[in-house]
Amino acid sequence: MSLNPNALASPDLAAHFPPDFTWGVATSAFQIEGAAFEDGKGESIWDRFCRQPGAIADASNGDVACDHVHRLESDLDLIASLGVCTYRFSVSWPRVQPLGSGAWNEKGLAFYDRLVDGLLARGVRANLTLNHWDLPQALQDRGGWAARDTVARFVDYAQGIQRRLGDRLSAITTHNEPWVIAVLGHEQGGFAPGIKSRATAMQVVHHLLLSHGLALQALRADGAKADLGIVLNLSPTYPASDKPEDVAQAHLDDGRSSRWFLDPLFRGEYPADVLAHLGADAPVVQAGDMAHIATRMDFLGINNYSRHIAQASGPFDVKTSGLPLTEMGWEVYPQGLTDLLLRLHRDYPLPPTYITENGGAFPDVVTDGQVHDADRTRYLQTHIAAVAEAMRQGVPMAGYMVWSLMDNFEWSSGYAKRFGIVHVDYTTQARTLKVSAHWYRGFLQAWRAAKGA
Ligand code: FCB
After folding, report:
1. Which domain holds residue 150?
2. 320 confidence band (pLDDT: 50, 70, 90)
């Protein structure tokens, strides 16, 4: 099977998006950088976690990953070659401040200087995330996100990054997916730091949100030029049936995964039903915290991959619809993205909203040096169309970023799950544009043509 990329470059689809829409690709530090113990970088909780037997499916780690630190210039060329407007990346906190407090590491800061300057020189905007999960291990040793002191450490780190890079950034995201850090990292324990306590996890959520709000205030007081916001992982939740118990379960699941974050950020309060459900596991909240959390954001970022179907008894997630699943076992349901965005627009006063991650892991077939990832291409097309439909119905969408620029370290799944639109050969580190990357490039050309640029 062969896909002609030009045939998939869709002027019709591109025409739905305004000239100031922001198109991008996304990565995160731990998943691509490598150079884990070079040039003064400190240990992160993911460096430590990967060494726990059984923690990572293929027993791999981030020591080398995509070797991005050593291939910065050619990776920047690769990003620019796609024709994107922006590149979403994260800073490894222990690379720039090895112990998470005190001394800064000049070599680490210089790396991100080169990254940002290299993007701007190539006409690509720099969209920086402060925390994509790789907390300095030294802070974990002092309690990590469960300790209130980490809030102050994060604000200090945010200010240091802005001082060094802030004049050249278009966006700063405080945290990527606080739900994952809290629930997968501290309640279920399958992600770093591998803790299993619901009460701890809920305290972690509170400290992440508080540090987000306080960081926004501090960055603005310091004269922030970049837009400031947070990135949440959100999935629309549907009840498995009309039975009252399934409907109630869907409401609770949505409460724990979505409203638990959206209500404090936009309304300054945790949802009462989830608080009641948590009982003694609810977080300790100090006077004034909730107002800080609700500090106005310039943007909201949403990572979306699939939907959730809830039922009162049986497995957590129902997968009986017969729709295709990605290699992660996540159902492909683009309509869910439109539903999600419409619901958010209805229930919250959304600032300009970005899809900061969307994409899929599929079994990539390499033939004659080409990767014919028709599934991924189709996934991107249909989800971009879902965003267009939400915009048509009034949702203030400002941008869309593909996860991911290139195949990388997929956390506890290791290197087996490939999300890239660029293929990475981990033996040679060769990068090969997949058909989806060719399609995306053609699509962006069509969009530029439509806006007359
Ligand atoms: C998200 C993460 C990102 C990547 C994708 C597949 O939860 O933010 O780093 O792993 O899932």
Report:
1. 10-450
2. low
